[in-house]
Amino acid sequence: MENKASNLPLIGGVVASIGAGLCCAGPLVLLLLGISGSWVGNLTLFEPYRPFFILAVVSLFGWAGWKLYRPQTECQPGEACAVPQVQKRRKVMFWLAALVALILVTSNYWVLWIV
């Protein structure tokens, strides 16, 4: 159970970053995939909620980073956070998810260069 609970802030951060990038990167990705229609323009309706999504991304990734990089003295022997291989895998997943989140959150700046 502790393993699944430790992934929630990371998963929540990625979902919130998708919400933050939905207004800007969403239409571009859909058009690049060949999906079009008048409803694609409605994705810009999420633009006013973008600051809330960004706040959620920062807070959830902060929580996930705190849980990942907290002192090992809080881990009981035999728990997942005490196993070095698990810690390394979680750190790699954390930084990959943080990179994806950064790309999506900053999408309104770099999408203009692609279009």
UniProtKB/TrEMBL annotation:
What is the name of the protein in this document? Mercuric transport protein MerT
Tell me, what does this protein do in biology? Involved in mercury resistance. Probably transfers a mercuric ion from the periplasmic Hg(2+)-binding protein MerP to the cytoplasmic mercuric reductase MerA.
The superkingdom of the source organism is Bacteria
Q: How does it sit in the membrane?
A: Multi-pass membrane protein
Could you tell me the keywords of this UniProt record? Cell inner membrane, Cell membrane, Membrane, Mercuric resistance, Mercury, Metal-binding, Transmembrane, Transmembrane helix, Transport
Q: Does the keyword Transferase apply?
A: no
Q: Where are the transmembrane segments?
A: 12-40, 52-69, 92-112
Main localization, broad class: membrane
| Protein family membership | Belongs to the MerT family.
Q: Name one GO cellular component term.
A: plasma membrane
**What Gene Ontology molecular-function terms does this entry list?**
mercury ion transmembrane transporter activity; metal ion binding
Do the record's keywords include Cell inner membrane? yes
Name where it's found: Cell inner membrane
